[in-house]
Amino acid sequence: MLQKRSYYSFLFAGSLVTLLIFVKCQTNNHQLTALESVSSPSDNPISAEKISFGKKLFFDKRLSRDQSISCATCHVPEYAFTDRKKVSEGVNGGKTERNSPSLLNAGFLKTMMYDAHLTSLEMQAIVPIQEHVEMDMKMKELVQRLRLVEEYQKEAKRIFNREVDAFVITRSLAAFERSLLSQNSRFDSYYYKKNKKALTKDEIAGWKIFSEELYCTKCHPAPAFTNYVAENNGLYLDYGQDKGRFRIFNDSMDIGKFKVPSLRNIELTSPFMHDGSLASLDAIFSHYENGGAKHPLQNKIIQPFVLTKKQKEQLKLFLFSLTDTTYMKDFR
Ligand code: HEC
Ligand code: HEC
Predict the structure, then answer these.
(1) Cβ atoms 116, 230 nearer than 8 A
(2) Is the pTM here over 0.85, yes or no?
(3) Cys staple from 125: which of 71, 117, 142, 173, with CB 3.0 to 4.6 Å?
(4) Looking at the CA of 288, which ligand is closest?
(5) Does residue 75's CB lie within 6 angstroms of at least one atom of ligand 1?
(6) What are the strands, taking DSSP E only, across the chain?
């Protein structure tokens, strides 16, 4: 019940704002899908103009030092806003430490990054811009550069009544990210819209395995298929350099904790895990089947189990029923 209720608020908020945005879009001819605004901070109300400006910034390579990288280089629309690389490549061949996460439904996140420590999309946007192995720009220089773009200055004046600055850049990017929704999968049709024919028998069997026979929904519950918190899923016995959330707060209980990723659109986003170390769902199933690597701080929920080949296939088919590419209509 609880799961359903939170899903309905997920949809309801989406529909409300869609309606508002739809009315606005009629005037500027910009097509938008559903979006929600529950988590829009009070200093950044969402609007169709802001989303559209944020979208331009998101795809603009001028945001990086040598103008070779945009946000979309590492968050590619077709791949559910990941880049399908083990780790990402930024300016000058720099490599990130981590695998690029999907940005679909990012508006629902309670915290950002694998360390689950940043509390707003506005704040997050500054990080890749300034990070040396990503865009390597100083915000001050970026503002100077973008002020020379007449169109951007005009938009900033129109939407924010100020010149392009860090406020305008981060607010617009965040508004755009809040418009990235994916909640129309076949699973949604089956589970929430009660269309019993939306899933095949095998997919339904896979959902039962995932939610009833195994423990997966303890950390990956519907509707978002994440509980939004950082957990240790026992990926390694020794986490080596990247100990996850520990590196932010230095709390030894945080060793090996990474924010639980949503499993929506997992069909489009391999390789998996914070470091892109697992290339396939089969590798992931083996990980959990073995009961994890038995790190001392591994969440106790994770215990060994055995699945037949057929059950694994069903589990995979269920996970693929979470794919929803309707968002792509705004990116073709
Ligand atoms: C060079 C590749 C690269 C570029 C460019 C890049 N990102 Fe990312 N992004 C990543 C990686 C890798 C992470 C994961 C970082 C972590 O968790 O430590 C990430 C994380 C994020 C997150 C957090 C998602 C979550 O689930 O917690 C958001 C939001 C985001 N990026 C938005 C952006 C925006 C907006 C831009 C452009 C201003 C951008 N990214 C540019 C690679 C990139
Ligand atoms: C204790 C919490 C927890 C439980 C229970 C759990 N997971 Fe996870 N899962 C995580 C965390 C944390 C990650 C990310 C770890 C990392 O990045 O190193 C993850 C990652 C994944 C990923 C990769 C997602 C991606 O985009 O990289 C898949 C797929 C997955 N889990 C499936 C499952 C399945 C199937 C089950 C049930 C057998 C399950 N999980 C049970 C916490 C959990």
Answers:
(1) yes
(2) yes
(3) 173
(4) 2
(5) yes
(6) 230-231, 258-259
| Pair of tokens at residue 147 | 């002020």
- Residue 116 CB less than 6 A away from ligand 2: no
Q: What's the CA gap between 188 and 133, in Å, rounded?
A: 38
Ligand 1 centre from 153 Cα, in Å?
25
CATH number, domain of 316, equals 1.10.760.10
At 239-289, the pLDDT tens digits run: 999 999 999 999 999 999 999 999 999 999 999 999 999 999 999 999 999
Task: Tell me which residue range forms the domain holding 155.
Answer: 2-181
Closest ligand relative to 283 C-alpha: 2
- Calculate how far, in angstroms, residue 187's C-alpha sits from the geometric centre of ligand 2: 19
How many structural domains does the chain have?
Answer: 2
Q: Which of 62, 65, 71, 272 to mutate to test the pocket of ligand 1 (most atoms within 8 A of CB)?
A: 71
* The pair of three-digit structure tokens given for residue 109, joined into one six-digit string: 């996140």
Out of 181, 200, 227, pick the residue that ends a domain.
Answer: 181
Contact of 224 with 183, CB cutoff 8 Å:
no
Helices then strands, counting H and E runs in the chain, come out as 12, 2
- Provide φ and ψ at 259, rounded to 5°: -60, 130
Q: Which residue has the tokens 């939407």?
A: 159
Residues 109 and 157 grouped into a single domain: yes
226 touches ligand 2 (CB under 6 Å): no
Q: Looking at ligand 2, which atom is closest to the CA of residue 298?
A: 1
Both 6 and 148 in one domain: the answer is yes
What is the amino acid identity at position 283? A
